[in-house]
Specification:
The chain is α+β, with helices and mostly antiparallel strands and about 140 residues long. The chain is built from 4 helices and 5 strands; from the N terminus they run αββββααβα. The two termini are about 25 Å apart.
């Protein structure tokens, strides 16, 4: 069940802003898990689709598949393996986004604010570490039985 909650939280975080950098007096560059958007006068409001959102979607799909398989009666070991895989993928994605946000905040390019998507994604990353540990524990119990 925690795998489902983690996947939903990560997907919600992906549509919220990760960070916003002021690049002109009235313009900014805003990132989410799916879009890089220019806002302000003279910037045209252009949006560029970011491919790394697909990696998050794949990690969440594997997490959901693992949670469903664990809840199904006969697929527990396979479900635990899927949960561990999806959780590991999500942890890697969270590390990637965190590094990106820290890089944006530490540069002297413009005033950068951290958005709510980053904080929700960090929470999903912590939850995915818990899912990973619980999945390993479940696999260890399955091997002993």
């Amino acid at each position: 069940m925690l795998g489902l909650v983690t996947a939903v939280l990560a997907l919600v975080a992906s549509v919220l802003p990760y960070h916003r950098t002021e690049i002109t007096a009235d313009g900014a560059l805003e990132y989410t898990g799916w879009v890089q958007r220019f806002t302000g006068t003279g910037l045209g409001g252009e949006a560029v689709v970011l491919v790394h959102g697909v990696a998050l979607l794949l990690a969440c799909a594997v997490l959901v598949a693992g949670a469903v398989a664990v809840l199904a009666s006969g697929a527990r070991p396979f479900g635990l393996a899927l949960l561990a895989t999806g959780a590991g993928m999500l942890v890697c994605y969270v590390v990637f986004v965190t590094a990106d946000v820290v890089s944006a905040v530490s540069q002297e390019f413009g005033a950068t604010t951290v958005g709510p998507g980053t904080w929700l994604l960090a929470l999903a990353g912590l939850e995915s570490v818990t899912v990973l540990l619980l999945a390993f524990r479940g696999v260890a119990r399955t091997d002993r039985a």
